[in-house]
Amino acid sequence: TSSLLPGCRAAMPPSTWPERTSSTLSEAYYQPSLTAEYDEDSPGGDFDFFSNLVTKWEAAARLPGDSTRQVVVRSGVVLGRGGGAIGHMLLPFRLGLGGPIGSGQQFFPWIHIKDLAGILTHALEANHVHGVLNGVAPSSATNAEFAQTLGAALGRPAFIPLPSTVVQAVFGRERAIMLLEGQKVTPRRTLATGYQYSFPELGAALKEVIA
């Protein structure tokens, strides 16, 4: 979460209004579905522990009144070098043991770390941006498609599935839900604000991460 101290708008032109930008998880806010498509105006945040937690995070970051331009960025799974989601996946995939998680049909909302940083910077610097932005890439992918693309980037097969029972045993019920269930999240408002993605496509993003 990054923010600038709030101030009084009355004596300040719009270009100098103070800003507050915070980041939460899109994959936890929107209800899992194999068919629904969610944008920034879609309902959510009230169906399980993690979604309620995101709602509380966003409420805690919100400042009262309208004297501060406020932006919330709901991010997908962040892809970057040196750790994070990819850090846990690389070894089995490099060994040719990677594959989809569970059925693989669940959507996998993702974003390259450069674009997440870019959206946060864009939200701070562009005075017309306010409200919720989905910090996800514009090209969606299922978990199986993600596994195949990562395998292709590494030059390795990626067809060995990780059964849901194993995921639940290793990660526990609550965390397993976030891996086994997904949602198709689109950055409609993010694109409408004029943000230009550096890595809109999954293949190019993964190649850069593992290079």
TrEMBL record:
It comes from the Eukaryota. Residues 163-208 form the DUF1731 domain. InterPro entries: DUF1731, NAD(P)-bd_dom_sf, SDR39U1. SUPFAM superfamilies: NAD(P)-binding Rossmann-fold domains. Transmembrane segments: none annotated. It holds the Pfam family DUF1731. PANTHER family: EPIMERASE FAMILY PROTEIN SDR39U1 (PTHR11092:SF0), SUGAR NUCLEOTIDE EPIMERASE RELATED (PTHR11092). This is Short chain dehydrogenase/reductase family 39U member 1.
